[in-house]
């Protein structure tokens, strides 16, 4: 299953049907993805910073993008 190969401790963009959340993927906790240093991206709005750890239910995830390393 592709969930086992997620890029832990890397910056990702988690895309869902109506929004996306960018942040550092800290870990998988059961059916949850846990992000830190996150910001919410919604259509027609500026990215909004989010405090604390963000838990995303994996069934809501459409796809995940991994950010390219800076300077590379």
Count of structural domains: 1
Number of helices: 0
For the terminal residues, how far apart are their CA atoms?
A: 29 Å
Return residue spans where pLDDT drops below 50 for at least 5 consecutive residues: none
CATH architecture: Roll
Helix content: under 10%
Which tags fit this structure?
72 residues; mainly beta; SH3 type barrels; 6-stranded antiparallel beta sheet; globular
Structure commentary:
The protein is mostly beta strands and 72 residues long. The protein has a single domain (2-66), classed as SH3 type barrels (Roll). 0% of the residues lie in helices and 54% in strands. Strands 1, 2, 3, 4, 5 and 6 form a six-stranded antiparallel sheet that branches. Strand 3 and strand 4 form a beta hairpin. The radius of gyration is 12 Å and the shape is globular.
List the helices and strands and how they pair.
Elements: E1 11-16, E2 20-29, E3 32-41, E4 48-50, E5 54-57, E6 61-66
Antiparallel strand pairs: 1-2, 1-6, 2-3, 3-4, 3-5
Offer a quick outline of the entry.
The chain has 72 residues and is mainly beta. Helix content is 0%, strand content 54%. The chain has one domain: SH3 type barrels (Roll), CATH 2.30.30.100.
């Amino acid at each position: 299953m592709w969930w086992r190969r997620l890029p832990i401790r890397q910056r990702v963009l988690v895309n869902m049907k109506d929004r996306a959340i960018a942040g550092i993927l800290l870990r998988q906790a059961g059916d949850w993805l846990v992000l830190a240093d996150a910001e919410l991206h919604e259509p027609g709005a500026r990215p909004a910073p989010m405090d604390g750890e963000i838990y995303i239910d994996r069934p809501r995830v459409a796809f995940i993008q991994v950010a390219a390393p800076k300077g590379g």
